[in-house]
Structure formats: C-alpha cells, structure tokens
Amino acid sequence: MGGSGSKGKGYWPFSGSVGGDEPAKDGQEQSLARVRSIRNATPFVFTRRSSLYYDEDGDLAHEFYEETVVTKNGRKKAKLKRIHKNLIPQGVVKLNHPRIHVDFPVVICEA
C-alpha cells in the first residue's frame, strides 16, 4: 500500500538519514550521499513525471488507438485497437504551483 513513496527505497529526504537499518548497497551509495548533503530538504515538489506520450506523428495523449476493420460472417465491423509500440514518454513536466511531497511527515489540517 502506498508503493510509490520513496521510503521503500531506503531514502528519506526530510531528515537526511537512511530509511532502513541496513547499510547502503553499492548502487544506492551515490543517491544517499546526495541526500545526506542536503540536510534540510524542501517539502515542496516542483516537477513531476508526465503520464502523456508522443506518437509517431507528434500527437500528445494518454492513450492511442487505431481503427481496424474486422470481417465476420460477411459483415464488416470497425474496432479500435490500442497502440503500444513507438510511443515516446513526454518526460518531466514543471508544475504550475508547487505541491507538498507525499512523504512529508506533518499532518496539515485545521481542527
């Protein structure tokens, strides 16, 4: 539950310490060293990874479909087939307004 959080990766940006009790593995040493150098990380997120894709024509959308004609019992029927190949992710997108990080350890509410 909540698998998208960064705590599962042994990384806690707001306290500057490692999330687990185990020492860092070789592949994680570089990212943990970078996090430790930033002692007071900001709770705000300014960018996110986009869920949109470009197709071969340069169109931008979440999903792409092509219309195919299926002949069954002498009748032609049009169906939509989803395209999975040759799609390029849009990449990182700057947010209009900063958001609070999902792992920020403070509950924000009014009583």
UniProtKB/TrEMBL annotation:
Region (Disordered), start-end ranges: 1-34
Cross-referenced Pfam families: TUSC2 (PF15000)
A GO biological process held by the record: inflammatory response
GO CC annotation, single: mitochondrion
Domain of life where this protein originates: Eukaryota
Name under which the protein is recorded: Tumor suppressor candidate 2
Originating organism: Phoxinus phoxinus
